[in-house]
């Protein structure tokens, strides 16, 4: 039996997870914990410039690597600043453990300086949370926290640790195993269900796989592609499912939903069987629920029983591991006769490609974002970690960047958090140092965590920081154009800062690109640079993302946008 | 297809007896806009395990969703959607639901403090006899009575009590226990 300090127990727990970096910001109630990092050089404390960024950075680290990540912040405002980051991770099922400092145990509940009821405010946005009342509980709680965050449907777990608990001593060891009586992990899927599903698949004429973020979370991409290739079933993915099948694959239909591809949404209306894998019928995917998949039988596989029949009643629901289901099906599978179906889809795709305006000059002579994104896609050949923010550029990236590998499009899908990209790219750069990391933001979102340029500089991270500057909030403006008579309430930035001067102020080089012919050379040069670089693209201010199925509408209401 | 029509439902939960578990559960019900009609909680024969009985009004499809989300809470051990035998409908659940819907017997307890005097004596004695009430306390003026039974019975008690002066009353809300049905 050895006596250990609370902070030592915490560092040992982090080390045991194989975590090399944690993301944090100091404060009064975590001074002991920050101090302990000086004794553990094998775990790096990445100090960011805002607690929200610490949460997004940890999120990016987890999305890129698939490993659990750790955030450490102080009590009160430190903890509340992480809420947006925690909610972002919760919506997209990202494994994260957030350690928040808390005021001393004897003064909890007295409105002490920098005290917040962290358990209360984080409860709705976490998978679970804990207040540690004694140092002797720490080994068990930390073990449970990491276990809960990473198993089943992953998610963020908050552990609130009073500052006196951090300095108290305990002999209690880490438990050998984890026993949480109320926490059920899914059992292997029953053979009968697998067989029933396979019979439905075999009997179908126009099957489609609708694959979601679950496939990226469970690293099920290979199993997915093998099953699809064996059977000849085409695949459409959600925003978070991108990369589960390489974009150029003959069975890949692209993204579905509000800004999905015409052919993907067409396939959903024509399908007689849809196999939903690790997706949750988000409203941006379904549009009008009553007509979505009205013609199709539905098989739904998910690790979370509560998403089955949540939005839409399905014909066959299965709770369990996607890879397990796919492997069992593949073992039975044979090639289905989908030739006619695939050629129907190919024809539709050829008739209804994504709008392409490359041949046209823009009204103000500025760049089109899709063009810039396709240049990035072609030059990198999809061999990059792309981190996007939220809005038009996010959708343009989803449409026009040819993602080749799983977990290479890191984006806030469910919560739609502006300001996500730059800090998430920081986390991604730490977890995948061998990959080029490209952070895309609009000029709106970029200014929501602009202070993280300092973190990029401090750690000299080789991130390409791309700003799409159109001097407005494009996606909201698009809705105003389409549904609010172009009344631009709050969406135009009459004054914008000089982003390159800001970059310079933070000690980072920057390039401004305004002409088509400058784009490719600038990207090529940027990719050769070892170190951070800011690239500002001056974009046309009047773009709209098409195709678009307006919110709550259906495929027949799809606005295609003019193709050239 | 599960019913979208609003109705009364009873959910029983077995939970770990840990701080905050009540808040976690009630937050899920309130997020979906369910109005909790009654909620009882108490220990069971198993150490560290408490049992909730929650009566809510809402659509069955939504309630099944809340039940599943409740089951996901780390401190929740078991959830049951229970049906009064007479309320039992042809409930059909597509996925893993059937085993969670159970028939049950339900009871409720009420304490009532009434003003007892010469004028009201006959009426109160009648109520006590008719509903097999227990007399718990007598102050010389006020009488505390205990009633228990089905919700319908307790409703009838309160109907009768309108004829006398009730000073205070409290109902526990339903508690439920599942039963085997043939």
Automatic annotation (TrEMBL), chain A:
<comment type="pathway">
    <text>Amino-acid biosynthesis; L-valine biosynthesis; L-valine from pyruvate: step 1/4.</text>
</comment>
<keyword id="KW-0285">Flavoprotein</keyword>
<dbReference type="InterPro" id="IPR000399">
    <property type="entry name" value="TPP-bd_CS"/>
</dbReference>
<dbReference type="GO" id="GO:0030976">
    <property type="term" value="F:thiamine pyrophosphate binding"/>
</dbReference>
<keyword id="KW-0028">Amino-acid biosynthesis</keyword>
<comment type="similarity">
    <text>Belongs to the TPP enzyme family.</text>
</comment>
<dbReference type="InterPro" id="IPR012000">
    <property type="entry name" value="Thiamin_PyroP_enz_cen_dom"/>
</dbReference>
<dbReference type="InterPro" id="IPR029061">
    <property type="entry name" value="THDP-binding"/>
</dbReference>
<keyword id="KW-0274">FAD</keyword>
<protein>
    <recommendedName>
        <fullName>Acetolactate synthase</fullName>
        <ecNumber>2.2.1.6</ecNumber>
    </recommendedName>
</protein>
<dbReference type="InterPro" id="IPR012001">
    <property type="entry name" value="Thiamin_PyroP_enz_TPP-bd_dom"/>
</dbReference>
<dbReference type="GO" id="GO:0009097">
    <property type="term" value="P:isoleucine biosynthetic process"/>
</dbReference>
<dbReference type="InterPro" id="IPR029035">
    <property type="entry name" value="DHS-like_NAD/FAD-binding_dom"/>
</dbReference>
<dbReference type="GO" id="GO:0005948">
    <property type="term" value="C:acetolactate synthase complex"/>
</dbReference>
<dbReference type="GO" id="GO:0050660">
    <property type="term" value="F:flavin adenine dinucleotide binding"/>
</dbReference>
<dbReference type="InterPro" id="IPR011766">
    <property type="entry name" value="TPP_enzyme_TPP-bd"/>
</dbReference>
<feature type="domain" description="Thiamine pyrophosphate enzyme central">
    <location>
        <begin position="194"/>
        <end position="328"/>
    </location>
</feature>
<feature type="domain" description="Thiamine pyrophosphate enzyme TPP-binding">
    <location>
        <begin position="389"/>
        <end position="536"/>
    </location>
</feature>
<dbReference type="InterPro" id="IPR045229">
    <property type="entry name" value="TPP_enz"/>
</dbReference>
<keyword id="KW-0479">Metal-binding</keyword>
<dbReference type="Pfam" id="PF00205">
    <property type="entry name" value="TPP_enzyme_M"/>
</dbReference>
<feature type="domain" description="Thiamine pyrophosphate enzyme N-terminal TPP-binding">
    <location>
        <begin position="5"/>
        <end position="117"/>
    </location>
</feature>
From TrEMBL, chain B:
<comment type="similarity">
    <text>Belongs to the acetolactate synthase small subunit family.</text>
</comment>
<dbReference type="GO" id="GO:0005829">
    <property type="term" value="C:cytosol"/>
</dbReference>
<dbReference type="InterPro" id="IPR027271">
    <property type="entry name" value="Acetolactate_synth/TF_NikR_C"/>
</dbReference>
<protein>
    <recommendedName>
        <fullName>Acetolactate synthase small subunit</fullName>
        <ecNumber>2.2.1.6</ecNumber>
    </recommendedName>
</protein>
<comment type="pathway">
    <text>Amino-acid biosynthesis; L-isoleucine biosynthesis; L-isoleucine from 2-oxobutanoate: step 1/4.</text>
</comment>
<dbReference type="InterPro" id="IPR004789">
    <property type="entry name" value="Acetalactate_synth_ssu"/>
</dbReference>
<dbReference type="GO" id="GO:1990610">
    <property type="term" value="F:acetolactate synthase regulator activity"/>
</dbReference>
<comment type="subunit">
    <text>Dimer of large and small chains.</text>
</comment>
<dbReference type="Pfam" id="PF22629">
    <property type="entry name" value="ACT_AHAS_ss"/>
</dbReference>
<comment type="pathway">
    <text>Amino-acid biosynthesis; L-valine biosynthesis; L-valine from pyruvate: step 1/4.</text>
</comment>
<dbReference type="InterPro" id="IPR054480">
    <property type="entry name" value="AHAS_small-like_ACT"/>
</dbReference>
<keyword id="KW-0028">Amino-acid biosynthesis</keyword>
<dbReference type="InterPro" id="IPR002912">
    <property type="entry name" value="ACT_dom"/>
</dbReference>
<dbReference type="InterPro" id="IPR045865">
    <property type="entry name" value="ACT-like_dom_sf"/>
</dbReference>
<comment type="function">
    <text>Catalyzes the conversion of 2 pyruvate molecules into acetolactate in the first common step of the biosynthetic pathway of the branched-amino acids such as leucine, isoleucine, and valine.</text>
</comment>
<dbReference type="InterPro" id="IPR039557">
    <property type="entry name" value="AHAS_ACT"/>
</dbReference>
<keyword id="KW-0100">Branched-chain amino acid biosynthesis</keyword>
<feature type="domain" description="ACT">
    <location>
        <begin position="10"/>
        <end position="85"/>
    </location>
</feature>
<dbReference type="Pfam" id="PF10369">
    <property type="entry name" value="ALS_ss_C"/>
</dbReference>
<dbReference type="GO" id="GO:0009097">
    <property type="term" value="P:isoleucine biosynthetic process"/>
</dbReference>
<dbReference type="GO" id="GO:0003984">
    <property type="term" value="F:acetolactate synthase activity"/>
</dbReference>
<keyword id="KW-0808">Transferase</keyword>
């Amino acid at each position: 039996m050895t006596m250990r300090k609370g902070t030592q127990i915490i560092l040992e727990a982090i080390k045991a997870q194989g975590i090399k970096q944690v993301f944090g910001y100091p404060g009064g109630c975590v001074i002991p914990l920050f101090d302990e990092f000086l004794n553990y050089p094998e775990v790096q404390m990445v100090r960011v410039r805002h607690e929200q960024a610490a949460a997004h950075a940890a999120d990016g680290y987890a999305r890129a690597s698939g490993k659990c990540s750790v955030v450490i912040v102080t009590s009160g405002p430190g903890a509340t600043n992480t809420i947006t980051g925690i909610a972002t991770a919760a919506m997209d099922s990202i494994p994260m453990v957030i350690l928040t400092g808390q005021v001393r145990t004897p003064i909890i509940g007295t409105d002490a300086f920098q005290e917040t009821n962290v358990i209360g405010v984080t409860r709705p946005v976490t998978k679970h949370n804990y207040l540690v009342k004694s140092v002797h509980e720490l080994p068990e709680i930390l073990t449970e926290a990491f276990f809960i965050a990473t198993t089943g449907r992953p998610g963020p777990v908050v552990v609130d640790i009073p500052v006196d608990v951090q300095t108290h001593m305990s002999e209690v060891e880490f438990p050998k195993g984890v026993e949480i009586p109320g926490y059920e992990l899914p059992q292997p899927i029953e053979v009968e269900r697998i067989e029933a599903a396979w019979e439905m698949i075999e009997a179908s004429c126009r099957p489609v796989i609708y694959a979601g973020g679950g496939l990226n979370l469970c690293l099920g991409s290979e199993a997915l592609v093998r099953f699809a290739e064996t059977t000849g079933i085409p695949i459409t993915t959600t925003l978070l499912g991108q990369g589960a099948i390489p974009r150029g694959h003959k069975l890949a239909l692209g993204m579905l939903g509000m800004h999905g591809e015409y052919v993907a949404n067409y396939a959903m209306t024509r399908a007689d069987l849809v196999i939903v894998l690790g997706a949750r019928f988000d409203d941006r995917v379904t549009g009008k629920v009553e007509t979505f998949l009205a013609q199709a039988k539905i098989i739904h596989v998910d690790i979370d029983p509560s998403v089955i029949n949540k939005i839409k009643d399905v014909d066959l629901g299965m709770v369990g591991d996607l890879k397990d289901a796919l492997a069992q099906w593949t073992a039975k599978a044979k090639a289905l006769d989908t030739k006619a179906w695939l050629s129907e889809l190919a024809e539709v795709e050829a008739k209804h490609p994504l709008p392409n305006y490359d041949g046209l000059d823009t009204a103000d002579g500025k760049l089109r974002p899709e063009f810039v994104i396709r240049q990035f896609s072609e030059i990198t050949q999809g061999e990059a970690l792309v981190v996007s923010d939220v809005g038009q550029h996010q959708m343009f990236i989803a449409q026009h960047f040819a993602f080749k590998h799983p977990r290479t499009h890191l984006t806030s899908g469910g919560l739609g958090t502006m300001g996500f990209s730059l800090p998430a790219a920081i986390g991604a750069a730490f977890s995948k140092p061998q990959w080029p990391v490209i952070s895309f933001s609009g000029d709106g979102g970029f200014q929501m965590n602009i202070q993280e340029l300092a973190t990029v500089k401090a750690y000299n991270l080789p991130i390409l920081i791309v700003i799409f500057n159109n001097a407005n909030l494009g996606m909201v403006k698009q809705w105003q154009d389409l549904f609010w008579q172009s009344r631009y309430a709050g969406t135009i930035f009459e004054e914008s800062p000089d982003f390159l001067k800001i970059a310079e102020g933070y000690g980072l080089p920057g390039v401004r690109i305004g002409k088509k012919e400058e784009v490719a050379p600038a990207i090529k040069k940027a990719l050769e640079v070892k170190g951070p670089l800011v690239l500002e693209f001056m974009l046309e201010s009047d773009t709209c993302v098409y195709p678009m199925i307006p919110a709550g509408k259906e495929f027949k209401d799809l606005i295609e946008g003019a193709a050239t | 297809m599960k019913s979208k029509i609003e109705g009364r439902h009873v959910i029983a939960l077995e939970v770990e007896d840990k701080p905050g578990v009540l808040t976690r559960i009630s937050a899920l019900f309130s997020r979906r806009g369910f109005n909790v009609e009654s909620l009882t909680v108490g220990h069971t024969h198993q150490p560290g395990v408490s049992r909730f009985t929650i009566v809510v009004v809402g659509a069955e499809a939504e309630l099944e969703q809340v039940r599943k989300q409740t089951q996901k809470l780390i401190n929740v051990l078991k959830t049951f959607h229970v049906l009064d035998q007479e309320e039992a409908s042809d409930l059909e659940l597509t996925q893993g639901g059937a085993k969670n819907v159970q028939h049950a017997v339900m009871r409720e307890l009420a304490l009532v403090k009434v003003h007892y005097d010469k004028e009201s004596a006959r009426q109160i004695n009648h109520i006590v006899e008719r509903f097999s009430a227990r007399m718990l306390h007598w102050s010389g003026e006020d009488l505390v009575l205990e009633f228990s039974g089905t919700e319908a019975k307790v409703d009838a008690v309160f109907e009768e009590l309108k004829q006398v002066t009730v000073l205070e009353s409290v109902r526990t809300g339903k508690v439920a226990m599942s039963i085997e049905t043939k």
